């Protein structure tokens, strides 16, 4: 996503649909005293409410005034990631309003301007995370298309013949190679090979399909060539773990004498880090496995000082726990839909391997049921991944616009 792409993006419909508008959030504070202190306290409460709403069902409602996650919605599902992006954008817009009001009141000192500029610099570092996540989502969509081929072949009307089984098995085999390839490449030390298979979206075309002999000689590399991503937007040496460390570097709670915008800037830095970490954990990214180890986490915010600290720390703990689960440890991403795809794919592969030729009776029923389950997973992924990709792009553009607006405001004040 080139930075220049943001121009004119505001004219297109936004993929975000806020449950509570900024205007309604402002009305919540009408009973409070006016002024900078009231605005800052309201901002802290709004951040707490947004993070509280992201807590998984039974954990919701604690530490932030939020009502908890929506019923049946799991952490790191596509729906949850989309709500996380929505929460980040809403907090960022509320932060922009707080800064703008402080400027209008003349309450933005040189020290405060420096803090705001530091946050924008921190946010710019998340642009690479957006690029990597966008490409990761695109990779998952290619997995879905291969899985859908396998399921569709076996769900076609009429009898299932040997040719149908062969075609489905081939699609599952190609998908397995890609999953293993990306899992290995996402681990520490595999960044170069991962990027070699996915770079150059804007300037290169996919190579032709390798020959049968080449597939036999080197299945992994040939499959990576055949299913080459149309892009990779980060540099060859880029690492998700190092990028998260850079985003969290120097992120510490303000001291007691640091008033004004120090607390909101710190709050937004913590929300930014959480948003970036969740994206990296969810989808395939270079060096994603190292990023899951949580060595990049900044110092924990004081629970008593910030109302959003309890829900944020709970979400950090949940992300860390998801990365340590045995059934997710070797996955290409912690996204719930990826896990469902892997399980359904394995179930269908086992049903095909156990199927006699010709198919009849219970064996045919088993194959069709497994294919139907995989088809349902593919449908859910199609419905969720496209809007998720649009939201990641929108977050990218909003970060860029926020940075440009911040520079314009600083130059205007300097004049």
What is the element layout, followed by pairings?
Layout: H1 22-27, H2 36-52, H3 78-104, H4 110-124, H5 126-155, H6 162-186, H7 191-196, H8 212-217, H9 219-226, H10 240-248, H11 262-282, H12 288-291, H13 309-324, H14 336-353, H15 361-414
Task: Give an account of the 3D structure.
By secondary structure, this protein is an all-alpha fold. Helix content is 63%, strand content 0%. It has 15 helices and no strands. The protein has helices spanning 22-27, 36-52, 78-104, 110-124, 126-155, 162-186, 191-196, 212-217, 219-226, 240-248, 262-282, 288-291, 309-324, 336-353, 361-414. Helix 2 (36-52) packs antiparallel against helix 3 (78-104). The chain is elongated and about 80 Å long. Mean pLDDT is 79; it is low at 4-13, 17-33, 59-66 and 188-232.
* Low-confidence regions: 4-13, 17-33, 59-66, 188-232
Which structural class is indicated by helix and strand composition?
Answer: mainly alpha
pLDDT averaged over residues? 79
Please tally the helical runs, counting DSSP H or I stretches of 4 or more residues.
15
- Radius of gyration in whole Å, from Cα? 24 Å
Number of beta strands: 0
Largest sheet: none
**What portion of residues is helical?**
55-70%
Question: How does the overall form come out from the CA principal axes?
Answer: elongated
Beta fraction:
under 5%
How widely separated are the two ends? 33 Å
Order of helices and strands: HHHHHHHHHHHHHHH
Oligomer: single chain
């Amino acid at each position: 996503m080139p930075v220049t792409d943001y121009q004119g993006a505001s004219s297109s419909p936004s993929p975000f649909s806020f449950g509570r508008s900024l205007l309604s959030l402002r009305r919540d504070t009408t009973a409070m005293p006016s002024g900078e202190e009231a605005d800052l306290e309201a901002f802290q409460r709004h951040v707490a409410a947004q993070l509280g709403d992201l807590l998984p069902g039974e954990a919701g409602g604690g530490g932030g005034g939020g009502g908890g996650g929506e019923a049946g919605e799991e952490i790191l599902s596509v729906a949850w990631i989309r709500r996380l992006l929505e929460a980040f954008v809403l907090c960022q817009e509320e932060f922009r309003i707080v800064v703008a009001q402080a400027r209008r009141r003349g309450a933005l000192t040189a020290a405060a301007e420096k803090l705001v500029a530091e946050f924008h610099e921190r946010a710019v570092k998340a642009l690479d995370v957006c690029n990597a996540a966008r490409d990761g989502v695109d990779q998952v969509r290619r997995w879905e298309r291969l899985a859908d081929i396998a399921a569709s072949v076996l769900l076609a009307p009429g009898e299932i013949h040997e040719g149908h089984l062969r075609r489905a098995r081939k699609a599952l085999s190609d998908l397995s190679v890609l999953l293993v390839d990306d899992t290995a490449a996402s681990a520490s030390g595999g960044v170069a090979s991962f990027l070699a298979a996915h770079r150059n979206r804007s300037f290169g075309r996919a190579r032709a399909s390798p020959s049968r002999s080449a597939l036999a000689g080197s299945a992994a590399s040939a499959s990576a060539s055949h299913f080459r991503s149309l892009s990779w937007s980060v540099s060859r040496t880029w690492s998700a773990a190092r990028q998260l460390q850079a985003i969290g570097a120097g992120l510490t709670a303000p001291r007691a004498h640091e008033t004004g915008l120090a607390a909101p800037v710190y709050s937004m830095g913590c929300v930014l880090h959480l948003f970036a970490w969740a994206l990296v954990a969810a989808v395939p990214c270079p060096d994603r496995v190292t990023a899951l180890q949580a060595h990049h986490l900044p110092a924990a915010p004081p629970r008593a000082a910030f109302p959003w600290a309890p829900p944020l720390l709970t979400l950090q703990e949940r992300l860390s726990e998801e990365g340590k689960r045995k059934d997710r440890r070797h996955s290409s991403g912690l996204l719930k839909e990826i896990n469902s795809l892997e399980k359904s794919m394995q179930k269908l592969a086992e049903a095909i391997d156990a199927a006699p030729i010709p198919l009849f009776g219970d064996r045919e029923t088993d194959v069709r049921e497994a294919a139907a389950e995989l088809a349902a997973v593919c449908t859910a992924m199609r419905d969720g991944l496209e809007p998720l990709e649009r939201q990641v792009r929108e977050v990218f553009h909003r970060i860029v616009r926020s940075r440009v607006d911040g520079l314009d405001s600083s130059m205007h004040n300097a004049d």
